[in-house]
């Protein structure tokens, strides 16, 4: 049999079943960027092609960070200090800081400056074995600046060996020039920004922030209806600070995911499970905002709602540059099991992005791999910091 590359002397966490789908002393082979064979080494057919001795490493599907705001201007370390001195996230947002302060810095930066600022952040994720990253706009809040952010995100995918998936998040905050004219901004998003992002192929999905300090469920529904008209799937920042019925709303639109979900109610969670909408858990935001309300994991388990885990990398509520750290926080804060956490950055993260070609080690899938020098998969959740990643493979090629 002819393969382009074979990895042997490895333990595999294929993520094919809910117990990690472990294959000890396994082998995995790539051809034309896809997995051509995977199984116990003893069963590997006679083959030609390059062979890598993985020296006993554990191989997982390349990790997927399915919710980031990685492209932005400036940073908000001064707000971090203000919060240490007692200000709340909502107070800062309502007084013109928060998302709007990043909006000003993002509008002021050109596309290349946004790319250069984002690269070190992206590299931090890649070093840990991440091979797919979702990036949202949402700091432009006007047509040109939203498109600029999406173009910068697309450019990152050309600068590095990684798949970038983009989401248009123009409905992230009301820009100041629309104060008192909310309907006009929602109309701009629905009638101009979404159509342009769709026709230029800049957005893979449409996201919105449904929240007391952002957009109402009715406004969100107008944005989602436009996304549907333009053939784009939707996802939602749901129920982070208040229960706005975001989970149920996301389910009713067949959203790929509802994210945050600290205050989502069990009925909304059950509706998501029935609709196949993934719950994206963001423990970095929970930690940073010292949130005491945690997502209702028991309701998610009971209803069979799939859970993903992500950094929510953003300059305000989650300046998180480590997906491995999120595995730890998902377990320690939310009490996820190790398999739940690992499924959350592989198979279920792929589902949260509507990707059916990755997230598990199986024949026909993209050969995106992450190799770790660990003795057991649980170590990926156990270490608080550090990075055991010893290899990254993108579309069958060591990256
Ligand atoms: O996912 N919740 C809304 N949006 C971001 C935060 C954005 C910001 O504070 O800059 C989030 O947490
Ligand atoms: Fe977010």
| Count of individual beta strands | 16
- Poorly predicted parts: none
Work out the count of structural domains: 2
Instruction: Assign the CATH topology of the largest domain.
Output: TIM Barrel
**Proportion of residues in β-strands:** 15-25%
- State the helical fraction: 25-40%
Quick one: CATH class of the largest domain? Alpha Beta
Number of helices: 15
Straight-line N-to-C gap: 24 Å
What is the average of the pLDDT values?
Answer: 97
Q: Could you say which overall geometry the principal axes of the C-alpha atoms support?
A: globular
CATH architecture of the largest domain: Alpha-Beta Barrel
Structural class, by secondary structure, is alpha/beta
Radius of gyration computed on alpha carbons:
21 Å
CATH superfamily of the largest domain: Metal-dependent hydrolases
| Largest sheet geometry | 8 strands, mixed
Describe what this molecule looks like in 3D.
The chain is of the alpha/beta class. It has 2 domains: about 1-60 and about 360-399, Urease, subunit C, domain 1; about 65-350, Alpha-Beta Barrel (TIM Barrel). It has 15 helices and 16 strands. Strands 1, 2, 3, 4, 5, 14, 15 and 16 form an 8-stranded mixed beta sheet that branches. An 8-stranded parallel beta sheet has the order 6-7-8-9-10-11-12-13. The longest helix has 18 residues, at about 180-200. The protein is globular. The two termini are about 25 Å apart. The model has no long low-confidence stretch (mean pLDDT about 95). Bound molecules: N-(iminomethyl)-L-glutamic acid and fe (iii) ion.
């Amino acid at each position: 049999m002819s393969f382009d590359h074979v990895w042997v002397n490895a333990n595999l966490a294929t993520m094919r079943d809910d117990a990690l789908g472990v294959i000890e002393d396994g082998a995995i082979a790539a051809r034309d960027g896809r997995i051509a064979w995977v199984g116990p080494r003893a069963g590997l057919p006679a083959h030609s092609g390059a062979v890598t001795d993985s020296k006993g490493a554990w191989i997982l599907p390349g990790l997927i960070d399915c919710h980031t705001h990685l492209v932005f201007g400036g940073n908000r370390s001064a707000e971090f200090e203000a919060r240490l001195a007692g200000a709340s996230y909502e107070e800062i947002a309502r007084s013109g800081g928060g998302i709007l302060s990043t909006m000003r810095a993002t509008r002021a930066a050109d596309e290349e400056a946004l790319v250069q600022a984002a690269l070190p952040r992206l590299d931090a994720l890649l070093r840990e074995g991440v091979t797919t990253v979702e990036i949202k706009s949402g700091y432009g809040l006007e047509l040109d600046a939203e498109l600029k952010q999406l173009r910068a995100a697309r450019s990152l995918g050309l600068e590095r060996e990684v798949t970038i998936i983009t989401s248009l998040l123009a409905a992230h905050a009301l820009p100041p020039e629309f104060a008192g004219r909310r309907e006009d901004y929602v109309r701009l998003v629905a009638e101009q920004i979404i159509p342009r992002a769709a026709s230029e192929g800049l957005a893979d999905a449409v996201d919105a922030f449904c929240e007391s300090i952002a957009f109402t469920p009715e406004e969100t529904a107008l944005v989602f209806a436009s996304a549907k008209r333009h053939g784009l799937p939707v996802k939602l920042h749901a129920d982070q600070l208040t229960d706005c019925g975001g989970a149920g709303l996301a389910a009713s639109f067949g959203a790929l995911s509802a994210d945050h979900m600290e205050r989502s109610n069990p009925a909304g969670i059950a509706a998501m499970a029935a609709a196949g909408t993934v719950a994206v858990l963001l423990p970095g935001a929970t930690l940073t905002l010292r949130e005491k309300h945690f997502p209702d994991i028991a309701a998610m388990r009971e209803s069979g709602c799939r859970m993903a885990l992500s950094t929510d990398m953003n300059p305000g509520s989650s300046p998180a540059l480590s997906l491995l750290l999120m595995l730890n926080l998902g377990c320690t804060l939310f009490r996820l099991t190790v398999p739940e956490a690992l499924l959350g950055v592989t198979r279920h993260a792929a589902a949260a992005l509507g990707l059916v070609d990755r997230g598990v080690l199986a024949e026909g899938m993209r050969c995106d791999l992450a190799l770790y020098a660990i003795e057991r998969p649980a170590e990926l959740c156990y270490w608080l910091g550090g990075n055991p990643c010893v290899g990254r493979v993108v579309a069958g090629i060591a990256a």
